[in-house]
UniProtKB/TrEMBL annotation:
<dbReference type="GO" id="GO:0051082">
    <property type="term" value="F:unfolded protein binding"/>
</dbReference>
<keyword id="KW-0346">Stress response</keyword>
<feature type="binding site">
    <location>
        <begin position="125"/>
        <end position="130"/>
    </location>
    <ligand>
        <name>ATP</name>
    </ligand>
</feature>
<feature type="binding site">
    <location>
        <position position="81"/>
    </location>
    <ligand>
        <name>ATP</name>
    </ligand>
</feature>
<feature type="binding site">
    <location>
        <position position="86"/>
    </location>
    <ligand>
        <name>ATP</name>
    </ligand>
</feature>
<feature type="binding site">
    <location>
        <position position="39"/>
    </location>
    <ligand>
        <name>ATP</name>
    </ligand>
</feature>
<comment type="function">
    <text>Molecular chaperone. Has ATPase activity.</text>
</comment>
<dbReference type="GO" id="GO:0016887">
    <property type="term" value="F:ATP hydrolysis activity"/>
</dbReference>
<dbReference type="InterPro" id="IPR003594">
    <property type="entry name" value="HATPase_dom"/>
</dbReference>
<feature type="binding site">
    <location>
        <position position="344"/>
    </location>
    <ligand>
        <name>ATP</name>
    </ligand>
</feature>
<dbReference type="InterPro" id="IPR036890">
    <property type="entry name" value="HATPase_C_sf"/>
</dbReference>
<dbReference type="Pfam" id="PF00183">
    <property type="entry name" value="HSP90"/>
</dbReference>
<feature type="region of interest" description="B">
    <location>
        <begin position="345"/>
        <end position="560"/>
    </location>
</feature>
<feature type="domain" description="Histidine kinase/HSP90-like ATPase">
    <location>
        <begin position="28"/>
        <end position="185"/>
    </location>
</feature>
<feature type="binding site">
    <location>
        <position position="175"/>
    </location>
    <ligand>
        <name>ATP</name>
    </ligand>
</feature>
<feature type="binding site">
    <location>
        <position position="100"/>
    </location>
    <ligand>
        <name>ATP</name>
    </ligand>
</feature>
<dbReference type="GO" id="GO:0140662">
    <property type="term" value="F:ATP-dependent protein folding chaperone"/>
</dbReference>
């Protein structure tokens, strides 16, 4: 080997990529250490594999590790491994050139878009992550010796277009990368990377679960003027619980790990440990928390799943791995091989990610289903904390809608204290009942006092009581369960009578239609600005009137939700149903037949409509006029 130093130029594409890495690609300068440690870990893996394949390979494998060395006076940071090492040609090929197909196209995309996706061919190549060192260093020196060879190679560059490379007679097995650090600059987020706490924090965040020990010599001041002492400490835990069989991990370890990844003070409600095998391998360790996070409904609330690739931390809050309705799930997904962009910070939306996402969702929902069947108390805790969010999945996740409907629990008129599922509701349906009835409102008390519920209560029909804003949307989107329609008690016409009851009451109903025809027509004309139609009601037993919508109308609550989100929604006129058996309605008919004062009758009609709106928890268009009219009418009675 020639020991003469040569000065070479970076290949044009490599030079461009180097500049992009230093100035554009990485959003956080701290990741340089992640990249160097990841390279070192790969080198150790490769040496272990090489010694297994080639029994004659002369290599020291007694204590494989990564070492971090700091010289505060010289302001250098060295990352050293005793892994596979490189030859001179490999150093030049991996760092000085990028002889990969598609590199030119990659660079074009990166230049055009900061969010561009890059070829996975470049990920894991030594040169790409290595370039990140120039974000924090003025000069980088690399010393390496290939396992089984006698001579080594020294490489050095300031990252400005050229590099020097020379052979050396003495070099330890493996690779060391020495960074001559730039001065710390807090405004540019350039930290002091010679500080022990900074290094510890970065290693803990990005490389805590690397399978090899990451060591650093630290100095401790002596007590009472004694000499300072130094000791070698291992900075990473190497405890990747997800890589161990579940029967080898106890509950205390799971609880400790959950608190580490979630920053929660309480133990998790349930552990979901899974492994994907085959063409695409991964491990996942997920947790269902025991209480909802404070930011669960915040627009910028954090997701809970962290992404690792080969135990190297890639990102927090990985949105690609779980849908928004499972945003409370915490944990880790560790993929063995995954397509990332060049900075490892943005996932490609490719088939691999979609496969992992589908499997994670199915596993989480299956776990909740198991809780519901076998651990009702824990399920009740889960649903109380997260049920509102889980119901969001009924709107968009059609693939898992059947499972979501199975784990759904809602309040109903069947039991004032216990929730019910849809299967339980169906099992209690009355003979001849074909629809699942529900009511929506701000609270259970509001719904239970609604006039819409009167006929259902009188006939003994169970009604689901839905009080979450999302309920207004999912019931419309789902439409049916087990072949039975989901129907609102406040929409369309309601007829709960049996065929026999209809026959018995037909004569009476026809008589009522004739008797009230004139009043119904007059009310329709008088209240034309507020209602679409006036008709006799079959759902009222004690209230004088109620307002209902057609089968496909938006509910008032849904209209308010859309307007709050900035959507233009035209106001929908609703239908006023009057109860012919109520004294107020009967008196209004009599007064109308006798030709009483038109002004008085009009006021009574407006009050009747206003009472119907208030009874369902609605808002009056002109509350001041309503209260003034009501006060005047009350005063006349005294």
């Amino acid at each position: 080997m020639s020991n003469q130093a040569e000065t070479l130029e970076f290949q044009a594409e490599a030079r461009q990529l180097l500049q992009l890495v230093v100035h554009s690609i990485y959003s956080n300068k701290d990741v340089f250490l992640r990249e160097l440690i990841s390279n070192a870990s790969d080198a150790l893996d490769k040496l272990r594999l090489a010694t297994m394949v080639d029994k004659d390979l002369v290599a020291d494998t007694d204590d494989l590790h990564v070492a971090i060395e700091v010289d505060r006076d010289a302001r250098t940071l060295t990352v050293r491994d005793n892994g596979i090492g490189m030859t001179r040609d490999e150093v030049v090929g991996l760092i000085g050139t990028i002889a990969k197909s598609g590199t030119a196209e990659l660079l074009r995309q990166l230049r055009e878009s900061a969010d561009a996706r890059a070829s996975q061919d470049l990920i894991g190549q030594f040169g790409v992550g290595f370039y990140a060192a120039f974000m924090v260093a003025d000069r980088v020196t690399l010393l390496t010796r290939k396992a089984g060879e006698t001579g080594g190679t020294r490489w050095e560059s300031a990252g400005e277009g050229t590099y020097s490379v020379e052979g050396v007679d003495e070099a330890p097995q493996g690779t060391s990368v020495t960074l001559h650090l730039k001065p710390a600059d807090t405004e540019d987020n350039l930290h002091d990377y010679t500080a022990e706490w900074t290094i510890r924090e970065i290693v803990k965040r990005y490389s805590d679960f690397i399978a090899w020990p990451i060591r650093m010599t630290v100095e401790r001041p002596g007590a009472d003027g004694a000499e300072a002492t130094s000791e070698v400490q291992t900075l990473n835990s190497m405890k990747a619980l997800w890589a161990r069989p579940r029967d080898e991990v106890d509950a205390a370890e799971y609880n400790e790990f959950y608190k580490h990844v979630s920053h929660d003070w309480a133990d998790p409600l349930e552990v979901v440990h899974m492994r994907g095998e085959g063409t695409f391998e991964y491990e996942a360790l997920l947790f269902l928390p025991s209480h909802a996070p404070l930011d669960m409904f915040a627009p910028q609330g954090r997701r809970g799943v962290q992404l690792y690739v080969k135990r190297v931390f890639i990102m927090d809050d990985c949105e690609a791995l779980v849908p928004t309705y499972l945003r409370f799930v915490k944990g880790v997904v560790d993929a063995h091989d995954l397509s990332l962009n060049i900075s490892r910070e943005i996932l490609q939306q490719d088939r691999q990610i979609q496969i992992v996402r589908r499997r994670l969702v199915k596993k989480v929902l299956t776990t909740v289903k198991d809780l519901k069947a076998n651990h009702p108390e824990r399920y009740r805790t889960f649903w109380t904390e997260f049920g509102t969010v889980v119901k969001e999945g009924l709107i968009d996740d059609t693939d898992n809608r059947d499972t979501l409907l199975e784990i759904l629990s809602v309040a109903s008129t069947n039991d004032p204290a216990e929730l019910t599922d849809l299967a339980g509701y169906v099992s209690r349906m009355k003979d001849g009942q074909s629809d699942i009835w529900y009511a929506t409102g701000d609270s259970r008390a509001t719904i239970e006092n609604s006039p819409h519920l009167e006929a259902f209560r009188a006939k003994g029909h169970e009604v689901l009581l839905l009080t979450d804003p999302v309920d207004e949307v999912w019931v419309e989107r789902v439409g049916e369960y087990d072949g039975r329609r989901l129907r609102s008690i406040a929409k369309g016409e309601v007829d709960l009578d049996t065929d026999e009851e209809k026959q018995q009451a037909e004569t009476e109903r026809e008589q009522q239609r004739q008797e009230f025809a004139a009043l119904v027509e007059w009310l329709g004309a008088t209240l034309a600005d507020s209602v679409r139609e006036v008709r006799l009601s079959s759902r009222l037993t004690t209230s004088p009137a109620c307002v209902v919508g057609d089968a496909h109308d938006l509910t008032p609550t849904l209209e308010k939700m859309y307007r709050a989100m900035g959507h233009e929604v035209p106001s929908t006129k609703r239908i006023l149903e009057i109860n012919p058996g109520h004294p107020l309605v009967a008196g209004l008919r009599k007064a109308h037949e006798q030709g009483d004062s038109s002004e008085t009758l009009t006021e009574t009609a407006e009050l009747l409509y206003g009472l119907a709106v208030l009874a369902e928890g609605g808002e009056l268009a002109d509350p001041a006029r309503f209260t003034r009219t009501l006060a005047d009418r009350l005063a006349r009675t005294l």
